[in-house]
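User: I'm new to structure prediction. If I give you an amino acid sequence, what do you actually give back? Let's try with this one:
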Amino acid sequence: MNDNVTLPQEVIMSKIYMIRGQKIMLDRDLSELYQVETKQLKRQVRRNITRFPADFMFKLTKEEYEFLRSQFGTLNRGEHSKYAPMVFTEQGVSMLSSVLNSQTAINLNIQIIRTFTKMREMILTSKDLLLKMEQIEKRSDQQDESIEVIFRYLKQLISLDKQPKKELGYKPNDK
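Assistant: Good question. You get back a string of structure tokens that encode the predicted 3D arrangement of the chain. For your 175 residues, that looks like this:
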């Protein structure tokens, strides 16, 4: 890859996972994108650890790592580390470009941050649609209740119409 590399958004999105309610990227995926070895990426992070607080980067628990490994399907020998990976949130990915200090890292970080932003917009849009659907559902529930009241009154009117009516007026037989 050259320094002016661009990746399809789908490629980046496929490397973003949800862990602990946060969108994250794995160290091995990032190192692959940046074209550096994972150990080099980790080394640079450890050398600059103060730039990576817990909300920027954390290590997965054994259970989280096993869950993710099960999502990847069959493991090829040597493909997955036996150690839990470092994972980076959107802010951590942003910070990586400053510690890797290469043009490729900077260009890819811009793409990754744009992808995170696009995903956030998509989530907000879907939340807005969900809220609108809930409002429509509430309105239709209220309309259903109103329609039921109307039908109840109509039934009462119909039942009144079926009752025998007392004739009005003067009858010579009445005394």
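You can read the tokens as a compact description of the fold. Here is one thing that stands out. The mean pLDDT is 79.
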